[in-house]
C-alpha cells in the first residue's frame, strides 16, 4: 500500500473517532490526540486544549492530562497532526498552494499556547474555545443546523475566525497547523523524542531539495529532521529520488533522527548533476 493511501486511511479513522457519537456512543472522557471540540454534538472524546483550560481555571493538578499528552507525544509527536487530526485533514483538503514564506511566524503557535494558558488563569474562562475555528466547524455550525443555536455575537465571532482560517488554508498549505494551533505546539515539544518520525540516510542525500518542494509545512526535511514544524506526514518520502528519506517508528537518537548527527554526516553529500 502506498504511503499516501495509508495516511488517508488513518485520517478517515480520525474522523470516525471524532464523530463516533453519530452511532449512539456516549462521551468516553478519553483525551482526543488532536484538535476536536468536545462541544460537538457527536463527540465522544475530550479536546486536550479545552480540558487544559478548565484544569487551569479549577486549579487542579492535571495528572491525567499530562500523562495522556505525554503518551501521545512520545508515541507520534506531531505525527497526530499529519495522520489523524480532523482539522489537519481539513487543512489538507484546502491546501491548493504550498507557499514558502513567513517561517519566523511558525513560532507564533507557541504564543497561542501560552496565551491560552494565561487567559484561562487570568480571566477564569475558556477564551480559546470561544475563538477556535475547529469548534466553529464541528460545534457551532452543527448546533445551528440542528436548530439548537441562535445567530448571536458569539456565533458570528466563531464564523469570523472560521472564515479567516479557511481563507488562510487556501492560500498557505497547512496554515492553521503552521502558525496557530496550540495542540500542534503542545505535541511539537515531543517531536524530536517521539518514536514515530522521519529518518535520513546521509550517504544517499544529494541535497536536490525535491523534498522541500513536496513539504506542505514549508520546511526543509533533509535539514530540519523532525523539527517542531514537521507533522511527519511523509509527503517528502516519495519525492526523494534516491530513497534517502523514510518515515516510521524508531528509537530517538538513532542515526538519521538527530538533526545534529545529520548535519555532521552530510558534508560529503553531493548534488544531483544538472540535467538528471
3D shape: globular
Largest sheet report: 2 strands, parallel
Helix amount, in percent?
A: 40-55%
Question: Could you give the count of β-strands?
Answer: 4
Q: Termini, distance in Å?
A: 28 Å
Class from helix and strand fractions: mainly alpha
Please state the CA-atom Rg, rounded to the nearest Å: 20 Å
Low-confidence stretches: 260-276
Characterize the structure shown:
41% of the residues are buried. The protein has 276 residues and is mainly α. Residues 260-276 have low confidence and may be disordered. Helices cover 47% and strands 5% of the residues. It has 13 helices and 4 strands. The two termini are 28 Å apart. It has 2 domains: 3-188, no CATH class; 198-268, Alpha-Beta Plaits (2-Layer Sandwich). The strands form 2 sheets. A two-stranded parallel sheet has the order 1-2. Strands 3-4 form a two-stranded antiparallel ribbon.
Fold topology:
Blueprint: H1 3-18, E1 30-31, E2 45-46, H2 48-58, H3 63-76, H4 79-83, H5 86-93, H6 108-123, H7 127-131, H8 133-145, H9 153-171, H10 175-179, H11 182-188, E3 196-200, H12 210-214, E4 245-249, H13 259-265
Parallel strand pairs: 1-2
Antiparallel strand pairs: 3-4
Helix pairs in contact: 2-6, 6-11, 8-9
Amino acid at each position: 500500500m502506498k504511503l499516501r493511501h495509508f495516511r488517508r486511511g488513518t485520517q478517515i479513522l480520525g474522523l470516525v473517532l471524532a464523530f463516533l457519537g453519530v452511532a449512539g456512543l456516549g462521551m468516553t472522557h478519553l483525551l482526543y490526540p488532536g484538535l476536536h471540540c468536545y462541544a460537538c454534538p457527536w463527540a465522544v472524546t475530550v479536546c486536550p486544549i479545552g480540558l487544559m483550560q478548565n484544569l487551569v481555571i479549577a486549579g487542579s493538578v492535571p495528572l491525567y492530562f499530562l500523562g495522556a499528552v505525554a503518551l501521545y507525544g512520545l508515541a507520534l509527536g506531531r505525527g497526530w497532526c499529519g495522520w489523524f487530526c480532523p482539522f489537519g485533514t481539513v487543512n489538507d483538503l484546502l491546501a491548493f498552494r504550498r507557499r514558502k514564506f513567513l517561517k519566523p511566524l511558525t513560532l507564533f503557535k507557541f504564543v497561542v499556547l501560552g496565551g491560552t494558558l494565561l487567559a484561562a488563569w487570568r480571566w477564569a474562562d475558556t477564551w480559546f474555545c470561544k475563538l477556535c475555528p475547529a469548534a466553529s466547524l464541528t460545534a457551532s455550525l452543527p448546533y445551528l443546523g440542528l436548530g439548537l443555536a441562535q445567530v448571536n455575537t458569539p456565533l458570528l465571532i466563531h464564523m469570523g475566525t472560521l472564515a479567516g482560517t479557511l481563507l488562510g488554508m487556501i492560500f498557505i498549505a497547512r496554515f492553521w497547523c503552521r502558525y496557530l494551533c496550540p495542540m500542534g505546539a503542545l505535541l511539537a515539544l515531543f517531536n524530536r523524542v517521539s518514536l514515530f518520525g522521519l529518518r535520513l540516510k546521509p550517504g544517499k542525500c544529494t541535497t536536490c531539495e525535491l523534498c522541500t518542494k513536496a513539504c506542505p509545512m514549508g520546511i526543509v526535511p533533509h535539514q530540519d529532521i523532525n523539527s517542531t514544524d514537521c507533522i511527519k506526514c511523509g509527503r517528502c518520502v516519495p519525492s526523494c529520488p534516491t530513497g534517502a528519506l523514510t518515515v516510521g517508528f524508531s528509537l530517538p537518537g538513532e542515526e538519521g533522527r538527530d538533526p545534529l548527527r545529520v548535519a555532521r554526516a552530510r558534508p560529503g553529500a553531493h548534488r544531483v548533476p544538472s540535467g538528471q
